[in-house]
Design a protein that fits this description.
Blueprint: H1 3-36, H2 39-66, H3 73-119
Length: about 140
């Protein structure tokens, strides 16, 4: 791996760490928006998460092509440190993602319970339509 490739590799790893941290922040913001029932914020943060994930995938692709088993010890230790930082950022994203999934699951359950409670109080039957009274059955006045 030449110097240019080495620099590209480190920049890509650093960008992945930054993106993973951004993703963790967005997941946290989405959970807060769920707690506040702020639908606009939920949409905004979910959209931001999708964009970050796309960028993260695009950034990770070149990393697989730049791996070099013949690195010297200094570079290898720098790569290991950068990858450990990335790994811890990914673990935080996974933890927050599980939390977000749990919030969504519980919200869904709460909505089902509320719907079941409301259904019992809604009118089940439609009001009967009154047919016109035929002329032969009308009361005659005297």
């Amino acid at each position: 791996m030449d110097q240019r490739q080495w620099e590209q590799f480190l920049l890509a790893v650093e960008k992945c760490v930054s993106l993973a941290n951004s993703l963790a922040r967005e997941i946290g913001e989405t959970c807060r928006a769920f707690a506040q029932l702020d639908l606009d914020a939920i949409r905004e943060h979910t959209s931001a998460q999708l964009k970050i994930c796309e960028e993260l995938r695009a950034t990770q692709e070149p990393l697989t092509n730049l791996a070099d088993p013949t690195m010297d010890d200094v570079r290898r230790s720098r790569v290991e440190a950068a990858l450990q930082t990335f790994d811890s950022a990914c673990r935080e994203v996974l933890r927050l993602n599980k939390l977000q999934q749990e919030v969504i699951r519980r919200s869904r359950q709460t909505l089902r319970v509320m719907m079941n409670l409301l259904v019992g109080h809604l009118e089940v039957y439609e009001a009967p339509m009154l047919a016109p009274i035929p002329a032969t059955h009308r009361l005659r006045r005297g």
